[in-house]
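Possible regression after last week's pipeline update?

I re-ran a chain I had predicted before the update to compare outputs. Posting the input and the new output here so someone can diff against the archived version. Not blocking, just want to make sure nothing changed silently.
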Amino acid sequence: MTKKKIKIIPHTHWDKEWYFTSARSLVYSLKDFDEVLDILDANSDFKCFHLDGQLSIVEEYLELHPEREEQFARLVKEGRLVIGPWYTQPDTLVVSGESLLKNLEIGMKLAKKYGGYQSIGYLPDSFGMSCQMPQIYHYMGLKYAFFRRGIAKHLVDNREFMWESPDGTKMFTHNLHHYGNMAYPPNKKEEIQEYYQEMIDKLGDSSLSDTVLLYNGEDQKPIRKNLPELVKVGNESCEYTVEIDTLENALASIQQEYLEKQLPLPTYNGEFTFGQFSRTHKSIFSTRVDLKQLNNHLENYLSNIVEPLSVLASEAGSKYESILIDNIWKLML
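New output (post-update):
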């Protein structure tokens, strides 16, 4: 029997507004993000940390802690602090396609300033997926699609699959079990080894791959300082191997495993809107309709009036105010 490989993805999922007001969430981020940077610098065994996947929280953090920017950018360039590619985490079925493209464009541009972004359409908590996401990701140069909510067994009965858009674009996709499935691991040696085995037993049959991904993090959760020690204890078992890794490296490894072992990889064409494993909160389409109508109006105004007229005006000699227009998009996003 092949030994299972456990790859741990350390991360935090940062809601700008949810349990807390945006101001309170921002205050918490100042301490938590400082701690992430300091621990990565102090402990080389802490291989990496994922800062959610949206640049808006990075922008606000560095605006208030500008003395951290050099350290932040260095860790990003070293591949130890993982950011992007989004500016904010969108709900793909609620906003326009142009809004999704601008969201990625602005997020990627800002991420490049600090050293780069993960090449993943990373949406761990959006409430359903549009069928055109692989097409959008491919257009923006991303390698993988990644999401949690909306899947069901009658659609795809495997954690990895090829997701095909209506235009024929196909993308290797991983369906996230839960972005907090390793949020609270135990510290005692016997307990953590049993914990790893329990997670293998729970998740092992959901994928043809021998790799099990565990996500050490959750909403507004600070970095788990002793994670490298928990990895070492896990590797004392002869039943499996454990390592901290970036999500992009992990997906590349899983994809290579499918190729080398010639494992059958399902192909799915369509959207993901089911709640079999995770709630998709269908009520988001009808709540706060006043805000949704204003958002829709602004999206249309920017996409169909402001930007086209600005391009025409620039051809006639006027300056195209790209920073101003991007700032409007950022406020809306």
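Follow-up from reviewer: compared with the archived run. The first helix runs from residue 22 to 42. Marking as no regression found.
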